[in-house]
Amino acid sequence: MRIKTYFASSIAQAMQDIRREFGNDVLVLSTQHVTGGGVRVTIAIENTSLDDEIQSALSDAPQGACYQVIQKALTYHRVPELLAERLLTALQGENLTSPEAALARALDKTISFLPLPTAASKRAFFFVGPSGSGKTIVAAKMAVRAKLANQRICLVTTDTKRAGALEQLSAFAKILDVPVVQARSTEQLAQVIDTMRAQGDWVVVDTAGVNPFLPQDMHYLQELKGSIVGIEPILVLPAGLDAMESADIAQVFSAMGCKRLLPTHLDMACRIGNILYAAQKAALSIADGGMSAYVSEGFCSLDPVIMAQLILHQQQGKAA
């Protein structure tokens, strides 16, 4: 598959242009309103030409060559040996003529993917993770998603430690015209969430960065989570970190109730093996990803096909 971006005056116009060129057989990955007017629509389409270097090199190649391309890409991305072997073993019995399709099937067999909702949810989403992982940007992007769907949302921050934390989230909230509240205690947090839920709002909670290896930090998060019924903690973890360290972090957050991992910094990281290993080792589902620091650009959808494309083509691009 290939990823292509269209700019137009409206989503309707963009979709008209896309269907005129490619028909209806396209997958829409994301839609974003562009500052200054217009929209950006990102789609995935099937390769119909041999302009892709990997596809052209392997279109008539034996299965061994396809296997080697995938193995090389996993090595480049520093995927630990045990997970790499598991993915390569999952290729057995597959028709290995397309590296992307083969790797996507192997990922689908090995790692879970569960995107964030695009419609209003009765759950409150509670973004947690180490300092600097991008939780505040993720919370703001959730607000963009709600606004584009014409749904109400409230942003809540429990970060009373970091200088300027409330101001940063408030700046995003002002631009998006959504309310933002600071909760300084578990009691305040529970009250705010109950009030907003009663109004039918989405509720997104931005938390302070923690050291996952300090029991007092994790106890603080556990107390916040325990004070709310129907709250889902989601681990926000940057790509490009050490895989073993990432897995250790993910397992700590899994133990506190996280079911999903949202990777960030995908646009800056050369290697994303840590995300795969953390998700697999801690039994977390990979949710949408952060491909840009710009709030207006929203999330990048992630599924086995898109992840396979990132692994193979990012490796190809960096090696060039």
Task: Characterise the protein shown here.
This protein is of the alpha/beta class and 320 residues long. It has 3 domains: 2-45; 55-110; 124-302, Rossmann fold (3-Layer(aba) Sandwich), CATH 3.40.50. The protein is 45% helix and 17% strand. The protein has helices at residues 11-22, 53-58, 63-76, 81-89, 99-110, 135-148, 165-176, 186-198, 215-226, 243-255, 273-282, 304-319; strands spanning 2-8, 27-33, 39-45, 124-128, 153-157, 180-182, 202-206, 231-238, 260-264, 285-286. The strands form 2 sheets. It has a 7-stranded parallel beta sheet with strand order 6-5-7-4-8-9-10, with helices on both faces. It has a 3-stranded antiparallel beta sheet with strand order 1-3-2, covered by helices on one side. β2 and β3 (39-45) form a beta hairpin. α3 packs across α12 (304-319), α4 (81-89) packs across α5 and α5 packs across α12. 42% of the residues are buried. Residues 56-62 and 316-320 have low confidence and may be disordered.
